[in-house]
């Protein structure tokens, strides 16, 4: 299989993080590890392999100027992809502010970050992360919301990690060396998933190899995966789209409620406590196993799609409502504010 350099992935292509994906989850250690990989590739003057990027081509193309760009969902490799864009964004922003490199850097911005009014990389449903990524991380538009969540915090931390890495080596010459290395020395395998591939299963399997998914993230993925298994007819299409949108909307509310000013509430603890409220306590209460293996299963969805769709809707509403109460219990905005009047 031919190895691809990074520019290959940006030739008339745009990328979306799909709704079943987790948000940005890398810690400073992971960002620094990637920066070290780039540094080593420079020192050794050899290509550095960064693994496989798994993509799923979408049917609808994106109009960028007079050209049609292919839209890909990033199924595996999102964390690496996003971090490389963060690094490129920092380098190109610095070079754009220097007269001798301004013109070339602005052309690179069009290639990697934003072409006309179209962003090359974005989040499909998570509007909070998408807006934050454009305004605070890429600094390519004004911030329109004060909303933040765990993923936006991770993005900001990663951006600051990149800035700190270059703090003492911010010369034009060094920035150009790193830009060249990112474009020419980093190599990847490209894996294109067919329309018939079980995308949800591939996502869950691949992502369990790296940073552990939280149980909350796994449950969201399962619910969206179950919806995708309902036969798509004229009668069901709009309902399924509406239910999928509801899950993403409610999940955004849940993440916001679990994100406090000084910390993020543990997602697994919240999920377990909610499941006890939702289904009742048992002495061998195993939340993840109950949800994935007993309750929201593909077998039940195939046998009773209407019943399961109603149950998913009920569960999502309950989870979102409980997340607000959970926030107030852990962080009352004023004394006794969690008591009802």
Describe how the helices and strands are arranged:
Layout: E1 4-5, E2 13-17, H1 28-44, E3 48-57, E4 62-64, E5 67-76, H2 78-96, H3 102-112, E6 114-115, E7 118-119, E8 121-123, H4 127-137, H5 150-165, H6 172-184, E9 186-193, H7 199-207, H8 215-228, H9 237-258, H10 267-279, H11 287-295, H12 298-303, H13 305-330
Q: What does this molecule look like?
A:
- With 341 residues, the protein is an alpha/beta fold.
- It has two domains: 4-193, no CATH class; 214-330, no CATH class.
- Helix content is 55%, strand content 13%.
- It has helices at 28-44, 78-96, 102-112, 127-137, 150-165, 172-184, 199-207, 215-228, 237-258, 267-279, 287-295, 298-303, 305-330, and strands spanning 4-5, 13-17, 48-57, 62-64, 67-76, 114-115, 118-119, 121-123, 186-193.
- Strands 1, 2, 3, 4, 5, 8 and 9 form a seven-stranded mixed β-sheet that branches. It has a two-stranded antiparallel sheet with strand order 6-7.
- The longest helix has 26 residues, at 305-330.
- It starts with a strand and ends in an 11-residue tail after the last helix.
- Mean pLDDT is 85; it is low at 336-341.
């Amino acid at each position: 299989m031919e190895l691809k350099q990074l520019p290959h992935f940006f030739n008339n292509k745009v990328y979306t993080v799909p709704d079943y994906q987790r948000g940005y989850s890398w810690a400073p250690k992971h960002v620094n590890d990637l920066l070290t990989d780039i540094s080593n590739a420079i020192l050794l003057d050899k290509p550095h392999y960064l693994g496989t990027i798994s993509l799923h081509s979408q049917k609808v193309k994106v109009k960028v100027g007079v050209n049609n760009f292919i839209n890909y969902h990033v199924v595996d490799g999102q964390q690496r992809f996003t971090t490389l864009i963060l690094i490129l964004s920092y380098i190109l922003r610095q070079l754009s502010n220097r007269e001798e490199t301004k013109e070339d850097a602005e052309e690179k911005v069009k290639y990697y970050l934003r072409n006309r009014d179209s962003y090359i990389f974005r989040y499909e449903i998570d509007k909070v992360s998408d807006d934050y990524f454009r305004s605070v991380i890429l600094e390519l538009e004004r911030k329109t919301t004060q909303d933040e969540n765990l993923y936006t915090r991770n993005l900001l931390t990663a951006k600051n990690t990149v800035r700190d890495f270059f703090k003492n080596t911010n010369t034009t010459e060094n920035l150009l060396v790193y830009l060249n290395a990112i474009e020419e020395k980093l190599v990847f395998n490209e894996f294109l998933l067919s329309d018939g591939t079980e995308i949800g299963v591939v996502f869950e399997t691949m992502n369990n190899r790296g940073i552990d998914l939280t149980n909350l993230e796994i449950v969201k993925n399962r619910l969206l995966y179950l919806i995708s298994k309902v036969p798509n007819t004229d009668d069901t299409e709009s309902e399924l789209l509406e239910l999928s949108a509801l899950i993403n909307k409610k999940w955004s509310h849940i993440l916001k409620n679990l994100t406090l000013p000084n910390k993020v509430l543990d997602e697994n603890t919240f999920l377990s406590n909610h499941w006890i409220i939702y289904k009742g306590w048992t002495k061998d209460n195993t939340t993840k196993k109950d949800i994935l293996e007993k309750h929201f299963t593909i077998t039940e969805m195939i046998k009773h799609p209407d019943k399961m769709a109603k149950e998913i809707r009920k569960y999502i509403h309950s989870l979102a409502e409980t997340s607000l109460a959970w926030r107030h219990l852990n962080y009352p905005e004023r004394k006794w504010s969690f008591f009802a009047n």
